[in-house]
Model the fold of this input.
Amino acid sequence: MTKSSVVSGFYKLPPKERLAFIRDFAGLTEDEVRLLENTGSLPLEVADHMIENAIGVFPEPMGIAVNFQINGKDYLIPMATEEPSVIAAASYAAKMVRDGGGFHTSSTAPVMIGQIQVVKIKNGDLAKKQVLDAKAELLRKANDQDPVLNSFGGGAKDLDARIIETTMGQMLIVHLFVDCRDAMGANAVNTMAEAISPKIEQLTDGHVYLRIISNLAIKRLAKAWCTVPKEVVGGEKVVDGIAYASAFAAADPYRAATHNKGALNGIIAVVLATGNDHRAIEAGAHAYAAFKGPYTSISKWTKNANGDLEGSIEMPMAVGLVGGAVRTHPIARIVMKILNVKSATEFGEVLAAVGLAQNLGALRALSNEGIQSGHMSLHARNIAITAGAKGAQIDLVAERMIKESKVRVDRAKEIIEELTDKQ
Ligand code: MEV
Done:
């Protein structure tokens, strides 16, 4: 009999009953059900309020990257990631940067963009003028939606409009610029965009469809830069290698995607651990990389006159300290305490520094010994566990596989058998 995924009233069931349904549907064993039920430090009632149809949690390892010094302040960086090497590489790179005086950062004001899409306009230029002429009134209406944000000095600050040509005709796109202070801002911006849309329809005689934040947050940028002495990074040849890698990524989108992914390995791990919206950050980074021309790298490395390495990164950083899971997720709250940032702007700058460190770690390894030696030794432990190794066996199996350059589950199983026979 084919099974149907249509489950009437699934969302109304208590999580345990949802899980029972999933157990029957997917043929889960009692052990598997127990693993899902064991939600650890994120109680199921909390998870159930965070998302819909919750049946459990998905634990991810979390570790701490050390050695970070940013604008003279020391930070310990919590990172949640499934990828081996990431935290070791970030810590190693942060140490190198520290030896060169640490990271320096800056950022713009935390301004997000809300987009309002007006279609079926008869006269684009006139519609645009009418919206711009009513700017003061529209901003007032937007700000009426969030007195709390206003009381902190944030709120809707400006508004702009542009005409775009699309496959479905001309559209007027209104941009509302909102200073979100310490919030990521999606809720505030979307509420404001929805609130001013009826007036925009009236002014333009058009029809508004979409009213939503843009993840291409070009008004909310964070920047980090650093200098690493050549002797710290491994000599002038390594400096050259990293500069060549940077030039490669700047010129070639195939490489830029991986280069940026390397920086995001660090950034996303921190964003995830803090309960912030990591998809927004990822979307923003890639869109920014393609904003001024063909897709390119978000960071740059060059050799300075002294032969030392200089690096910088710049990207949108729409993160918050308040709102969403940042405050509801019990672990995210602890992560924020460890991170010890006082504003969303400081948080964004820390993330930029982490991205630059992660990028440096990857490029140094890639332009030197390659990443596989470091990666494989950590990966080998995962393979050993997948093959069934337990306790002290894990390291023994991993070491043997690395020595033989055969990091594979089938080989791990053979080694486990040998070790078990010997016992
Ligand atoms: C792997 O997760 C990340 C790298 O591919 C990044 C890079 O190539 O720069 C190593």
About this structure: The first strand starts at residue 62 and ends at 70. The chain has a mean pLDDT of 95. The pocket of (R)-mevalonate is lined by residues 83, 258-259, 261-262, 265, 362-363, 366, 371 (CB under 6 Å). Residues 263 and 423 are 45 Å apart (CA to CA).
